[in-house]
Specification:
The structure is a single chain. Helix content is 44%, strand content 11%. By secondary structure, it is α+β, with helices and mostly antiparallel strands. It is flat and about 135 Å long.
């Protein structure tokens, strides 16, 4: 516990240690050396041109900067030559760093691109159901009317971006009339992303076009050299129409189809064009990541063509192009040309040739293969099936064996475990990404197809396919378009071949390709949804006004002025506190000034989860008090990291209230709870680590929390100085499943959008390095240009007094100035107060762009009705006055002004003029973000306990989910005074004891003791429920009605404190941080399906039921299955249970045999012989296995660990054998029998008749429970039983461990009476008023019990049959009770059972 202070603190001065001073000097020296090296290597041209010779030979070696420093650090600090070029070039930095650089374009290309972007981004609906589409998707009915408007706006935007290099946010803010109202700033971002795709499309199209043209020339050259080849059917010439189709392709899918077609037909020709391989460039992969390779000579298609089967394929009678037209028109436009001979006869001539096809079926199979590939590669057919899949494709899912084990009712994939034919159009938002995640985790198998049987169960290992006639698939719907409608024998046989070829083309080649495309398309749409949601989440975090600005707003609101202290007491100091749940990790307090600098900090050692109410005297709270007194903070921030955060907040608030009692000058500090997600990331990143290298991570966590309260935008921008840091923020539970580069770009754009809305004070960036990160997110700038701009100002030693100095002093180009000038604000009042000789422009502190200053001044002059023709006219004075009194701006006719500007060829500037008026009316750069708000209890609960973003799954606690918790307390309600006066104790007729009706305590010997128990306040009250705690610290409550399905009389009979139980969630109370639970068997089993998680409407319940029944039947069949093991030990045998029975029969009692277990490869079974035909099977768990068949390095039986099998034999088996021998050699031991209980009862009855005064007992092995022994005894008429368990530590009897049998029997003889009493109390309700008799007792027996009540006293004083006096019957208390007349009177009215502890035996 300590308190530290920075040197700037006047109240807590400290001396800087010498070693810290030396570290600072060393860092300055290293930085100077680094800058000197950069200057020498890169800025002196003569040095760069010199030749540096090494000592080994005369080989030249260039002095490379990377050789001296870490290349990654050089790149991260933007010190490379490329970074220098970016700083100098007058183009927005983010346009230069884009993967595909911005390129200028002519009007024709811009028109084509705008139409393409409109068609793909705004006019094409998504396949799946996406929310983000509804913002900009154009209705089909309005498509024609709005298409021109959209295309013209997109054209203007592309012209601004590509030719004028306008930043997106400059366009959104200062060219708003060209995009609003149809487009939003986010739409501009996606237009820029699609511009990249357009360049990729053009590049790929040009590559394929170039390849097609060179192939065409190559083929014509081949024909010229070999004129006879023109008559060959195998030769397919590239026509001009083919090249034209490639030129007109406007989608990646079409280009992929043409590329695949060329690789199919001209693969061998491409191999022959080796001399052109350098000039021919095809992208390494297509849109979907499928690598293209040249055809191999071993290719089956090539072999079929090589041996002339292409001519046989032509006899199928229909070309792929003709079949494509038939599909497109949905009727048979082209009928197949029929060959006059049968296919078998046409194949005979190929048998005469020396070919690998030596049978007719092989020849026909090769021809079918050629036809199938040609059909599947035809672009028309692929386009048709692609469109068909987008409308009719369905999704099927089947769980794997791992999925059946892990996907329970509350798994994120439970709704989609068994999907049967869900249309792809019914998938919403990110659902498909969840399925892909489950598939990658090997939980499910995912299929996309047109129909259920089309590709799920078809094996293409050979081409001998016989399509099933009753298979209702889409293939059956289209096959008539490929067949000839005739019934002759020749036509029938050819139709069979055509059917097989078409079946092969559709199912083996077309479906896999289109399915892969559909998976990619659905994945892309879901990823875009995740990106949009992540941008929205980050936007909500940064779209929050700093806390002190929120106070200014509150003070301006007269209705809430009484809630906030007066402005003269407003202090911008802030205290932040970070506490962590781990007991060995301390917390920290830190006091920050208005610029985020550390004033002081303190270490907290005692503030943990065990905090109780009223603990404000703790040392940690004294530190709170000391800092509050010293700095008088306006707000205190607490991190939502521990469960007791609200208790801490209340205690801190008590401290503040106590300090402010009787004081009118001290501000009333507010205490707020904040989300720690940003601090969790930034405390470990470079931004805070480099600023505070000597601070622990917990202290940096507190600093980040405080700075976020001061300005969340600045803190997020500081984190984004390394863009990849944004990816660590929990924005979406599927953010790790998408492209991290695309997500990072989107998040940076979101920050830029917020920064452009707020503006950046460049002079404050010069003062505070922490705030300088904002400048890199100004439109037009970036980290390189922003750092260069600040360095130029620092070198000049001046501040920016007006925006024109961005050009004169900072030397930025006109394009970058146009993009960034309006977003850089200057504090005009502060500059005037300091005094300057430079011209001060009041509009430099507003959002008004410098290009529209004249319009803003004219609006001010016209509003004030100044005469601008006089010599002493000053428009600057008019602006100053209008800023103080802006009401007159409402009198201006801005529409007329806009019409005048439009006549002067300025275009439509209505939106700009209204924006200028709003800026002048509302105040310069008035923050438009939402007010600061702390977290409510719902938010804190989700962060602490139910955060799906932290676990990348769905919510953890939902109604109906099963959880495991530990019982910590039994909640009771104390009786009121009125209830205590009306108490009605109840007497147990068996024990004679009285019970409290509230707490159910039943050991009161007299009626009056119950009254005393209640009057003295000793009664804890009636049990109302159970308090539990989960593993994560969340409390749960089980009401008395939800403990058991039956009536609960005594809670202790059902649960005990410390017991672990399984419960079902009934409700979640986020306000109290608790769960309402139930452990009733009816709720746990959920027979009525009240808690079943909702399934998808296409869920296949029948398939799930069939799989469950199949698993049950297979588990029964696999009970005897085991894995043979390689274990060398005399007691180990590789045998199943049935095989081991002959060996077990020959073993001695107490001996054992070890064998493999049927429960898995990591278990063994130890079979211990207890008696003849009685074997106890003990499970041995193996851990740290090096191989499946070897034995584990550690062996576990229950919770005991053993090193090897020898230790198990010595420490486990031998000890049990000794106890077993002791039991078997006892005089009361009896051998086992099949009807063990009835046999022992007969023996006991015989012994009881011989000597009624004694209690006989016998010990016998249990047949039903191997490893246990039955202890049977007869205290009265009925035989009772207990069980003795064999344990290496001793004999376990009634939850006690005894070292020997004699010790156990001695304890049993002394305490068996208490056992009898417990048995009766547990089975008889205390409120029972009617007489009870032994089961199946006769009338005479019941009369016997009543008639012998008068002789009870004699029986009480008798000695027990085991030879010891009864301590209860001879006690003084019993003698007084026995002589009580009231007691005699009550006992004569009720029967008496022999099991009472007062009357143990007859």
């Amino acid at each position: 516990m300590f308190l530290c202070s920075s040197p700037s603190d006047a109240t807590l001065n400290a001396i800087i240690p010498l070693h810290i001073l030396l570290q600072v000097i060393l860092k300055i020296f290293v930085s100077s050396y680094l800058l000197s090296c950069l200057y020498i290597i890169y800025l002196i041209p003569s040095f760069r041109n010199e030749e540096d010779y090494s000592f080994r030979g005369n080989r030249k070696r260039r002095s490379d900067f990377v050789e001296y420093f870490d290349p990654q650090e050089v790149e991260q600090r933007h010190l490379t030559c490329a970074d220098e070029e970016i700083k100098i070039l007058d183009i927005p930095e983010r346009y230069q760093t884009r993967k595909i650089h911005i390129q200028t374009a002519d009007n024709l290309e811009l028109e084509d691109e705008s139409k393409w972007i409109f068609s793909n981004l705004f006019a094409s609906p998504t396949v799946s159901n996406q929310d983000y589409v509804f913002d900009h998707l154009i209705d089909a009915d309005l498509l024609d009317s709005k298409a021109r408007t959209f295309i013209s706006k997109i054209y203007s935007i592309l012209d601004f971006i590509r030719n004028r290099h306008y930043d997106l946010l400059f366009i959104a803010c200062y060219r708003r009339e060209l995009i609003a109202p149809e487009l939003s700033p986010n739409d501009l971002y996606w237009i820029l992303k699609y511009d990249e795709k357009w360049h990729q499309l053009r590049s790929k199209r040009n590559s394929i076009l170039k390849l097609a043209q060179r192939l065409q020339s190559h083929l014509y050259e081949s024909i010229r050299k070999q004129p006879d080849a023109m008559l060959n059917d195998e030769l397919r010439i590239i026509q001009d129409e083919d090249i034209l189709r490639v030129e007109n392709s406007n989608s990646f899918d079409d280009l992929s189809d043409y590329s695949a077609l060329m690789f199919l037909y001209y693969g061998q020709e491409m191999v022959e064009m080796r001399n052109l391989s350098v000039e021919i460039h095809i992208s390494d992969s297509d849109t979907h990541g499928n690598c293209k390779k040249f055809a191999s000579r071993r290719n089956y298609f090539y072999l079929c063509k090589k041996y002339g089967l292409n001519s046989l394929a032509c006899q199928f009678g229909l070309t792929p192009e003709q079949f494509g037209e038939n599909l497109r028109e949905s009727y048979q436009v082209h009928e197949p040309d029929q060959s006059p001979v049968e296919p078998e006869e046409a194949s005979i001539e190929y048998l005469k040739l020396n070919t690998p096809f030596n049978t007719i079926e092989a020849i026909l199979s090769g021809a079918r293969h050629i036809v199938a590939l040609q059909i599947s590669h035809e672009p028309q057919i692929r386009a048709y099936f692609r469109t068909l899949f987008r409308k009719r494709a369905r999704v099927f899912t089947i769980p794997t064996n791992k999925g059946k084990l892990h996907i329970n009712d509350w798994h994120y994939c439970a709704r989609y475990k068994y999907l049967r034919g869900k249309p792809v159009t019914d998938f919403k938002n990110d659902e498909f990404l969840l399925l892909l995640q489950a598939e990658e985790q090997e939980l499910i198998q995912l299929y996309i197809t047109l129909d259920e049987s089309s590709s799920l169960d078809i094996n293409f290992s050979n081409d001998q396919l016989e399509p099933t006639r009753n298979m209702q698939t889409y293939f059956n719907e289209i096959k008539h378009l490929y067949l000839r409608d005739d019934y002759s024998a020749v036509v029938t046989k050819w139709n069979v071949q055509r059917t097989k070829a078409l079946f092969l083309a559709v199912h083996k080649y077309l479906y896999p390709v289109i399915t892969q495309e559909m998976r990619y398309l659905l994945k892309t749409e879901a990823e875009k949804h995740v990106i949009c949601q992540s941008m929205e989440k980050l936007g909500q975090w940064v779209d929050q006004v700093p806390y002190f600005s929120s106070l200014d707003r509150t003070c301006e609101d007269s209705s809430r002025r009484d809630l906030i202290f007066s402005s003269e007491h407003l202090n911008s100091t802030l205290i932040a506190c970070s506490i962590f749940p781990e007991h060995d990790i301390p917390g920290y307090l830190v006091a920050l000034d208005k610029d985020g600098n550390v004033n002081s900090y303190a270490k907290l050692n005692y503030l943990k989860n065990n905090l109780r109410k009223g603990d404000s005297h703790q040392p940690d709270f004294q530190l709170f008090k000391k800092l509050i007194i010293t700095y008088e903070p306006t707000i205190i921030i607490l991190s939502a990291t521990i469960r007791n955060i609200y208790h801490i907040r209340d205690e801190v608030q008590v401290i503040i209230n106590n300090l402010n009692e009787g004081s009118n000058t001290s501000p009333h500090s507010l205490v707020e709870i904040m989300d720690p997600n940003l601090a969790n990331v930034s405390s470990q990143c470079m931004n805070l680590t480099s600023e505070f290298p000597d601070y622990p991570i917990q202290l940096r966590h507190a600093i980040s929390m405080g700075r976020r309260a001061q300005d969340s935008l600045t803190e997020f921008a500081s984190l984004a100085t390394v863009p990849q840091n944004l990816l660590y923020l929990p924005l979406h539970n599927l953010q790790s499943r998408i492209s991290q580069e695309d997500l990072c770009d989107a998040l940076q754009f979101q920050l830029c959008k917020t920064v452009s809305n707020v503006g950046v004070d460049i002079n404050s960036c010069l003062k505070s390095e922490h705030k300088s990160c904002l400048l890199s997110f100004v439109p037009g700038l970036g980290p390189r240009k922003a750092s260069a701009l600040l360095k130029r100002l620092q070198q000049d030693g001046s501040i920016l007094e007006n925006r024109s100095q961005l050009i004169t002093i900072c030397e930025i180009g006109p394009t970058v100035f146009l993009n960034c000038a309006a977003f850089i604000k200057i504090d005009v009042k502060d500059i005037r107060a300091k005094g300057t000789d430079s011209y001060i422009e009041d509009l430099d502190g507003s959002r008004v762009h410098p290009e529209t200053y004249d319009w803003a001044k004219k609006m001010a002059v016209d509003a004030l009705e100044y005469d601008d023709t006089t010599e002493d006219f000053d428009s600057t004075e008019a602006v100053q006055r209008i800023l103080q009194n802006s009401e007159k701006l409402r009198e201006l006719d801005l529409d007329a002004f806009a019409s005048q500007l439009e006549k002067e060829n300025f275009g439509d500037k209505r939106a700009t003029l209204y924006d200028i008026r709003d800026e002048l009316e509302g105040g310069c750069f008035r923050d438009r973000r939402k007010p600061f708000q702390g977290l409510n209890k719902q938010d804190v609960f989700e962060i602490l306990f139910d955060n799906p973003l932290a676990t990348h799954t769905q919510k953890i606690f939902v109604k109906g989910k099963l959880v495991t918790c530990k019982v910590v307390n039994i909640e009771r309600r104390k009786p009121t005074q009125e209830q205590s006066t009306k108490i009605s104790p109840e007497r147990n007729e068996i024990t004679g004891k009285w019970a409290c009706p509230f707490c159910k305590k039943s050991d009161f010997s007299e009626f009056s003791l119950v009254w005393i128990h209640c009057d003295e306040g000793s009664c804890p009250g009636e049990a109302i429920g159970i308090r539990t705690i989960l593993e994560n610290g969340l409390y749960g409550f089980i009401s008395i009605h939800n403990i058991s399905s039956s009536t609960v009389v005594n809670v202790e009979n059902h649960v005990q404190i410390g017991m672990t139980i399984t419960c079902r969630i009934l409700s979640v109370n986020s306000q109290k941080f608790s769960l309402e639970l139930s452990c009733k068997s009816s709720d746990l089993q959920d027979v009525e399906n009240r808690f079943v998680n909702l399934k998808d409407k296409f869920y296949d319940y029948k398939k799930e039921k069939d799989d469950t029944e199949c698993e049950k039947s297979s588990s029964k069949n696999d009970l005897n299955h085991y894995i043979k093991r390689i274990i060398v030990h005399p007691k180990f045998k590789n045998l199943s249970y049935e095989e081991s029975l002959p060996l077990l029969e020959n073993l001695l009692v107490g001996d054992c045999l070890i064998r493999p277990s049927s429960r898995g490869y990591n278990r063994l079974t130890l079979s211990l012989k207890i008696d003849d035909n009685i074997y106890q099977h003990i499970d041995i768990v193996e851990k740290d296995k090096t191989h499946t068949y070897s034995i584990g390095k550690s062996l576990w039986i229950n919770n005991e660990e053993y090193e090897d099998l020898d230790e198990i034999l010595a420490m486990y088996v031998n000890r049990i054998s000794n106890f077993l021998k002791e039991l078997r050699t006892h005089k009361c031991f009896r051998p086992p029998s099949t009807n063990e209980l009835s046999t022992l009862e007969t023996l006991l009855t015989q012994e009881k008749r011989i000597n009624p005064s004694r209690i006989p007992y016998f010990i016998s092995p249990s047949v039903n429970f191997p490893g246990k022994f039955i202890l049977a005894y007869t205290p009265k008429l009925k035989a009772l039983t207990d069980y003795i368990s064999l344990n290496p530590q001793g004999l376990k009897f009634r939850n006690k461990i005894f070292d020997s049998l004699s010790q156990m029997l001695k304890w049993f003889k002394d305490h068996y009476v208490i056992s009898l009493c417990n048995r009766e109390v547990s089975t008889i309700r205390p409120s029972q008023k009617f007489p009870t008799y032994p089961k199946n007792s006769s009338i005479d027996e019941r009369t016997f019990y009543s008639s012998n009540l008068s002789t009870q006293g004699k029986q009480y004083t008798a000695k027990g049959s085991l030879g010891r006096p009864n301590p209860i019957a001879n006690s003084e208390h019993y003698q007084s009770v026995r002589t009580n007349s009231n007691y005699q009177l009550r006992t004569q009215k009720r029967p008496f059972k022999y099991k009472s502890s007062i009357h143990p035996f007859k």
